[in-house]
Amino acid sequence: MDLLLWRHAEAVEGSPDAARELTERGLKQAQLTAAWLEERRPKRLRVLVSPTLRTRQTASAFAREFEIVPSLGPEDGVADILAATGWPDSRGACLVVGHQPALGRLAALLLSGTEADWTIKKGALWWFTNRVRNGETQTVLRAVVAPDLV
Q1: At what angle do helices 24-40 and 53-60 cross, to 10 degrees?
Q2: CA atoms of 48 and 68, how far apart (whole Å)
Q3: Which of 85, 87, 97, 149 could be 59's S-S partner, Cβ–Cβ 3.0 to 4.6 Å?
Q4: What is the pTM of this model?
């Protein structure tokens, strides 16, 4: 299984939190990361998105259709992402467009075995693969993409 974690791009400050829109810079960040991802798009990719406006706008730069998952909101955590995606046992690939701190904590868990407060930059994408080698399950970090480096 491939698991792609994409933090929403830069959004305006304010409230209500769920209605915050992407800034002009955020729209550009989303487009740059989406263009990179489109060139490498995995087969059978499911796109799961937090219900907030900024995550839906970020996802829209890449996909016309995506599934809005209420349990991927800003207040939800690592267990919610794992449950929504079926990691590591699902087939195919799953892209989650979500929020800090859950995305960073999940990245830490996948790479170190322990949740920690790692930061995923706004608009950045982390791509993980789960595989079995010689009877051992492994998590591989395939790519980290920041929009300012694309």
Answers
A1: 50
A2: 6
A3: 97
A4: 0.96
